[in-house]
Structure formats: C-alpha cells, structure tokens
Amino acid sequence: MRRRAASILVMALAVFAPSVGAYPVVPSPPETRELEFVWSAWKDFVAAGLGDESAYAVRRTSDGFVYVGTESGLLRYDGKRFELVGSIPSRRCFALAEAKGGRLFVGTHGAGLFVLRLDDGTAARTEVPAGRVLDLSPDGRGGVFASTDQGLWHCPGEGLCVAYEPARGLPVYRTRLATWRGEPVLWLGLAEGGVRRIADPLGRAPRLEPLTLSEGLPNDLVRALLVWSATGEDLWIGTGRGLARYDGERLIRYGKESGFPEAMVFALAAGLSAKGEPELYVALRPGGLVIIDPEGRWRRWTAAQGLPANEVQGIWTGERPAELWLATLDASVLRREPERFQAIDERFGLPDRVTYGVGETLFPDGGRSLWVGTMEGARRVRDGRWEAFLPRELDAFVVRDIVGNGRETFIAGDAGLVVWDAEGFRRYSRDVHREMPARSIDRLAVLSDRGEEEVYLGSGHGLSLFRPRSETFRRLSLPGGPDVPILGLLARPAEGAVLALTPRALLRVRGEAVAVEAVPCADSGEFVTMAGEEMGGPVWIAQRERVFRLGRDECQGFAVPPGIGPITGLVMLEGSALLMLGGGGAIRVPGDWAGEESRIERFGHEDGLESTQLRTARSALRSSSGHVYLSTGRGLVGLEPRVSGARIGEEPLVVSWLVDGRPARAGFEALEPGVEVGARVRLLSFLGEHRIRYRFRLRDEVAGTVVEDSGFVASGDIGYRRLTPGRYRLEVEAAAADGSRHGPVTLNFVMLAPWWQRPWAVAAGALALAALGWLSARARVAFHRRRARELQRAVEERTEALARANAELDRLARVDSLTGLGNRRALAELERSRPIGADTLVVIIDIDHFKSINDRFGHRVGDEVLAELGARLRAVSRRGDQVLRYGGEEFVLVAEDGSDLAALALLRRLLAAVGDHPFRVSASETPLEVTVSAGAARLADAEPAELSACLALADEALYGAKEHGRDQAWLIHAQGEAVLRSGRRARIIRRQEVARANDPRRWEKAG
To answer: Which listed residue (689, 889, 956, 977) is catalytic?
Structure first.
C-alpha cells in the first residue's frame, strides 16, 4: 500500500509539478538559405536484399558490422548482403544499443529485450517483461537503461534487469545518460510532461530532481534526447511537434514560428560534415532530416536536396566526416555517399533535365552563384533555390557558358552573346556582327588588358575576340583555317593569355596574336578535350586513347587505363586531382599521377554515373564548395567528393574459413582428401563497397610456388577442391574503394593423402589385386555375353521407337502447332489427292486489323486469337470439310456445297461464329471484338480445276471484301456472279464487276 501511494505521489509530481526557476523561451534562428546549392547523394540497399520495408534503428557495432532493426527482424550487413539474425525471435526491432564486452542490446515490439553476443551470434532474453521497448541508453558500465511501456528498467548485466526505482510511475519514453556541467545526469523524456532529470543515476542514492521542462516545448511528448558537447553540453529535446535546446538558463524553441517543420523528432545524433565540422542531425517523421551547426543555425534535407525518404526514424553517425546512416519508414536504410553521383533534375527545381552547360560566376546584382543552362532556359542559385535571371525575351534561348567579373557578365549560347551590366542587357548576334564565329557561341574566356576586358568567343566554327568598350568583334586567324572547331578555352590571367584547343593543336592567344603551343609528348592523333586551373598549374589534354600533362617544363603522356574506353571529358578536382570520363566509366587520379594502376579510383553505373558523355560547351565544374557538376547526355549530375586527403583507413577484414562450406576454426591443419577448402572474406568498409576487390593466393609451402593467384576480383568467396596432398598457405587481402590495401590474413593447412596411398593400404591392395584378377577374368566373359544380349534388345527397341518418331514427325509436318489445323503442306497434299469439282467451295478467311491486336496487346494475345479462331472454324465446319491455316492470320476452308444458297449459309455461319461472340484474352478483362473477311470461289458447272486456281479466285474475292469495309464475305464462280456479305446479309454482283471493285463509285447492284 505504501509503495502504491508513493507511486501515485511521484506521478502527480511528474505531471503537475511546476518548473523550478523561470527560464525565458526564445525562438530559434530561421532556416539557413545558403547561396550554394546544397544537396547530398544517398545509397539505398535494394541490391543488398533490402526492400522498402520499415526500418526503426541502425547501428554499426565495434566489430565493424552494421545492424538494422526492421519490420521483419534484426538484420546484419557485411558489405554484400543483409542477413537475418535468427537468434532474435521478434520480427519488429525498435531499439539498438551496444554495451561493453561485445554485446548488442535489442529492444523489440512485444517480445521484450534481448542481448546479442557479437562474437558468436547467440542471444539471450533479459528479465524485462515482454512488451514494447521504446528506447535503450548505454550506462557506460556495460549495461543499459531500457524505456518500455511498462516502466524504466536498468540492465547492468547480460540477463539481469531491475525496475529503476527513481523513475517508478513516470511515463518514460526516452532516456539519455550524459554529463551535465561536470556531473552525471540521467535525462528522462516523458510520454507526457516533458523532460525530467535524475542526479547521480548510478550512485547509491539517485534522486529525481525538482526540474520539469515542459512549458515552452513545442510539445510535451518527448521522443529524442541528446547532450551535444559542440554547444557546451546543451540538452537537445525532440518532441512530437518540433525541437528545443536547453542551456540551463533558457529554452530555445525550434517550432513553427521559426519555420521549423511541425513534425515528430524521433532521433538526434552528433556527427561531422563532409568538411569535418560538427553537426547535429535531427530525424523527422515526416519532414526529412534537419542539420544544425554549433551556432544553432539549421537547414533541412528533403527530396529537393536528394533525400529519398521523408520519414526518418533512426540515425547512426561514425567518427569520419559525412559518415551517416538513416533508418526510414518508407525506404528502409539509407547511407550518405560523398562519392556517389547524384542526378539533379526537376526534383531539385530545374525546369528541365536536358542541360547544355554548368558553371559558377559573379553576377552584376551581387554574389557568386552556380548556374545551369537547360532546354527550358537558364537558372542560377539564389538563396539556396534555382531562379530564372534572364529577361523574358532571352529566357527561351539555350545558355552554354557564362563568365562574369562582378561588373559585367558575358552570356553565350543560342542567342549569340549577351552582356549584362548595371545598365541592363545587350545582345550581339551574327546577323549584325559578321565577325562573330557563329550564330551560337559554345564557350567563353575573359582576360583584362590594361583595364579593358577581352572576351574570347569559341564555337564549332572558329574563334573571335570581342572588346566590350568599343563593341567590336575580330575574327582570329587560326592554324588550319578560320572555321577550325574550338574544343576548349582556358583563361590564364597570370600569363596574360588564353589557351584554346583545336582538334590538331593547342593554341596560346594574346590579343589577336595566335601561337601554337608545343605538346612534344603527343602523337599525331586528334585532341578531344582539355582541363586546367585558371590560376596556373599543369594543363591536361586528352586524345581518345591517351592523356597528356603539360607543365611549365614538362610534357608527359599516359595511356588511358583499361576499362574506361575512349576519353570523353576531363575535370580538375581539388588538390590538382583529375577526373577522366570515358565510354566505360570514370576514374580519378592524383595530380602527380604517373600512370600507376594502383593509384586509380574507378566510378561507374553503380556509383550513379549513368552517362559519361559530356556536352560540348562548358560541361564540367568544380564549385567553390568542392562539389563537381557535369552536364552529361543524361542531364546534370553532381559529385560530392570526400574530404581532401581523407582515406578510408583501417577497416576490419573479416575472414570466415570454410571446409566443405561449413565454418572451421582458423587453426585447423590436417584435412582429409577431397574436401573443399575456402574462405568468405568481407572488408567492412562501407564507402563504395561495390568497388572493393579481394585477392586470394594459394601457396605450396613444400615446392615454394604459387598454386593459384586470383588477382583482385569482386567476389569475396572462394573455394579450392581436389587439392593434391601437401602443405599449403592461403593468403587473403583486400583493396578498398580508394585503393588502400588491407591484410593479408593467412591460413596454413595440410592436405592429407588419400587412404589408399598410405603404406598399409598399398600392401593390402597388392594381395587383393591377385585375387581379383582371377575372379575378374571369369566375370568378364559372363558380362560380355549378357551385355551382347542387352545391346541386341536395345537396338530393336530403338528401331521401333525411331519408326514411331518418324511417323509422328510426318504428322507434325502437316499440322500447324498453334491451332492444330492442317498447314500449307497439308493443303498441297489435298490438292494432289483430289481435284476441285463443280460442287466444291474454297474459302480464304483473314482476321480484320490483326496487326492492331498484336501492337496493342502483344503477340501472345495474337496467338490466343489465332488459336480461338481455329477452334471456331472447326466448330462451324461440317463432316468432310477441310479447315487449314494458310499462313499468318489467313485460314482456308474447303467444303462440299451443292448450291450458292448452301455456300451463303455456310459463310453467314462463319461470320457470325466470329463476329457475334467476342474473344476472351488474358491481357484484357474486357472481351475483344474480332471480325474476319472471307473470299470464296466455286467452279459451278465447270470442268474440274486445280486448287491453286480456286485459291487465286478466292483471294481476289477476299481483296474485294477487305476493300469494302471488312466483316463480310464475297463468293465468285464461273458464271460471272459474286456474293457480297455485308451487315450479316448477302447481295449478288456480276463477276465482271469484281475487276472494278476498288472504285465504290462505279459499283452496280444486280438482282
């Protein structure tokens, strides 16, 4: 009774106790609108076995694996596949927390709390009652605090859990153990009532302090808690309607008054940005992901910034920059990928995904900005969003290049040249200025000469110089003629020159003077592209199969690495690194690359690079933020590179040794012959893991030779079967996506000789052979006699079977396989077997508009219609009639009819059997209306004739039926009469009118 009264008192204090001390509530800063276009690329794991199921929690453990709590259970990721951890019986895993000693606590929905041992995968159920485990917080001593729908529990050991008395009666949803102003504090997030605090939580006398944070919170349902040291150990509180920050003196509220989404905050995590700066990540459901810097400024990732999911449930951050995993409710698990190419299209605000140029420049109305030219006009970034900036009369033109200095901005494209300054926009076209190289300008380069700009205009028809002060153009004389295509322009202000690339030469241009720049290491092939920095440094030039680095005193040529194909583009990256694009993908090489294969990093379709074909204008950019943008044949794509100089580092290389596919201990030696020795290797490096390569070397220790060297291959699984007896060493190593090597890990083992090669077996075998020799001689004679009889029986059976098969083949050769009717061969045999007499009717039937059925529903449905039509023709024919498939959608019916009236009756039945009953097909729930046209011929009162002659007359009648509306039949016979079937009624015309059937105006009816 006393305990119950105490619980009620504690509950009342939790709900009704006022806040101790007055603290002001202030709104947070508004959302940051950065000038640069902020986005991030993400990787999903559909290819690794995860669909779009709900994921609730994600965590990478100390052994290097990634665990995900999902709707279907607890999954473990090894870099290749997600596998279900079968020792956890619950399907819905809500919370994960790792404790010391290699233990992972797993909170479930309805099954309680489990402890998973990471070394062997075994799991044990704790004493926490079966119910919903809402949250887990490590206690720093190897245990956890577990928030459940039945109270707060403390689990200091593997299976021991006790109810945590200081929080008894409180509806605890979240817990976080942290240091607050130098003292350990357990923060409690309540399902109702905000936040409470317990001092000395692991001491002898933990106490619930008289502090309640509820007034001023966006909502009193607390779903996330975190003490972030980057803000001076401030407490961050996620609620059902927003976020708040408590610094001990005031409450800063991130709510709707600051533009913060009114969404549930389900998780908080501290991490590092791509530049290595501290960031706080806030999971919203719905609302995407919010990123907060130490100053409290925030921005949001949604679909407009590349986030594939809007319902974020859990977060895990690593120690390296940009290492971020998300558990979502509608896209399972996502991981931020700084090394993945991201398509930037209409989802991000661009008017069209077809782009012609991309760059970054200074605009006269202030600020450096990213711009892109699309099929629907040019756009630039302003306040973090794409906006149109050209006048309406120029917005429809395609923009290919823009260069500006803050006072004047020069815009090139299909409109010619446009100059934008303080006075407005001026357009220059080739219709007026004939010295311009072409109507459309592809690329620009600008130099300042004694205070006056010199603007170089390049196109596929040469190079011109424009001086804005005098508004004059001058066509430059180039080696090879004035119309030589300009493949690239690079301004070098420090040198007072512009480098221009043509298919045959690299040119250095100063004013109107053009000189050929020597490339002594190049061969006689044509150049395709170039790249370099405006501030100086080496210039890279590419031919289709070679690249050249041209420096102040050097010229080095390198063969294009295998697998990339002909070069299509070059892009300068940070630190003088170079990105080469070719038909087979892309590679990145360092600035001091000398052709070494080991220093190459490869990118392909799996990295999001769907096209490597760059546009001919300014098609590549490395922005001031370090992002790379490419205008490709598939649209605009971006790449967020890793932090400069950052490497993957030492990641766990996990090796599972296998014997006949079953796990084996690493120290095994003697193996029986015939078993398979293998390994399953995983480098737990989760950055471009599809580019990880493994190498297996099997050495014969006795002979000192390499038995097999796999080279670097994508598969981490290998097996060796039927090894000869001897002593072996298997060496395993891995190469990460950045080329760094990991390992080797070795296994020594002995393969024993087969038992029959051992000494005791050799002696026993000699004796056995002598006895077996005599027995085998007697048995051999009996065997051969028995075998001869068996062979004779087999020959007789085979001969009989061959005769049956030949008969069946002969039958099948005369039968159409689709309809079961006779085919052309059967028709030919019919013509040889019987002449056509006066009472014989020959009909050709053709399906109306059969091609539209195939086009609309596919050939499978067309086959269904043909088979059904064959069945209906058999049903309408009489005994003695012959129904055959003539070819395609044409059928032939040969019937014995004594008169025109009998023939007309047969034709009416034929047309009604098809047209009056729609066809049911598999591709449509609605029955399909099908009609046929028919042409018939009779040689009434004539001499017997060949079937081919009747077929020719019937085909002529069929043509007339087709030309006059289809769904009808015509009959022709020697007396010069024809019967026209139309609207289910027959009419007769003269035979001579058939020749004029193509002209309806000349049609004459006869009784």
So the answer is: 889
**Does 8 score more than 60 pLDDT?**
no
DSSP string, 274-310: TTS-EEEEEEEETTEEEEE-TTS-EEEESGGGT-S-S
CB distance 67 to 118 below 8 Å? no
Higher pLDDT: 232 or 94? It is 94
CA distance 927 to 300: 52
- 519-577 residue pLDDT tens: 999 988 899 999 999 888 899 999 999 999 998 888 999 999 888 889 999 999 888 88
Average pLDDT value over all residues in the chain: 86
Report how far residue 876's alpha carbon sits from residue 909's, in angstroms, rounded to the nearest whole number. 7
Say if strands 333-336 and 183-190 run parallel, antiparallel, or are unpaired: unpaired
| Residue in 171, 169, 154 with CA at minimum distance from that of residue 222 | 171
CA 222 to chain centre: 37
Task: Give residue for tokens 């070098």.
Answer: 492
Question: Residue 377 has which token pair?
Answer: 């006009």
Dihedral sign of CA atoms 468, 474, 477, 478 in order: positive
* Pair type for strands 162-163 and 172-180: unpaired
pTM value is 0.72
Do 695 and 734 form a contact (C-beta atoms < 8 A)? yes
Please answer whether residues 63 and 102 qualify as being in contact, where contact means their C-beta atoms are separated by less than 8 angstroms: yes
Which of 578, 506, 572, 569 has the alpha carbon at shortest distance from 542? 569
User: Which residue, among 443, 623, 589, has the nearest Cα to 36 in the 3D structure?
Assistant: 623
Based on the residue annotation, tell me whether 889 is a catalytic residue of this protein: yes
Q: How confident is the model at residue 643 (pLDDT cuts 50, 70, 90)?
A: low
Angle (nearest 5°) at CA 816 between 815 and 822: 50
**Paired strand residues for 746:** 731
User: For residue 213, what pLDDT is reported?
Assistant: 79
CA-nearest of 520, 529, 533 to 574 is: 533
Q: How far apart are CA 17 and CA 11, in angstroms?
A: 10
Q: Best-predicted range by mean pLDDT among 176-180, 280-284, 807-811?
A: 280-284
Q: Are the beta carbons of 524 and 483 closer than 8 angstroms?
A: no
Distance, CA of 633 to CA of 638 (rounded, Å): 14
Please state whether 19 falls in left (phi above 0), alpha (psi between -120 and 50) or beta.
beta
Share of the chain above pLDDT 90, in %: 45
Q: For residues 130 and 110, is the Cβ–Cβ distance under 8 A?
A: yes
Burial status of residue 836 (CB atoms within 10 A of its CB: 0-12, 13-18, 19 or more): buried
Instruction: Tell me the CA distances in angstroms from 280 to 181, 243, 273, 974, one per residue in order.
Output: 20, 12, 9, 96
Peptide bond into 171 cis (omega under 30): no
> What are the Cα distances from residue 926, in Å, to 529, 862, 921?
58, 15, 8
Residue type (1 letter), 129: P
DSSP 126: -
pLDDT: which is higher, 671 or 472: 472
Q: How confident is the model at residue 996 (pLDDT cuts 50, 70, 90)?
A: very low
For 729-748, give one letter per residue: b (16+ CB within 10 A) or e: ebbbbbbbbbbbebbebebe
On whether the CB atoms of residues 443 and 486 are closer than 8 A, the answer is: yes
Residue with tokens 């201990």: 665
In order, the DSSP letters of 234-274 are EEEEEESS-EEEE-SS-EEEESGGGT----EEEEEEEEE-T
Is residue 991 a contact partner of residue 940, using CB atoms and an 8 Å limit?
no
Cα distance between residue 430 and residue 445, in whole Å:
19
Three-state secondary structure of 178-241: EEECCEEEEEEEECCCCEEEEECCCCCCCEECCCCECCCCCCCCEEEEEEEHHHCCEEEEEECC
Closest to 381 measured CA to CA, from 627, 605, 136: 627
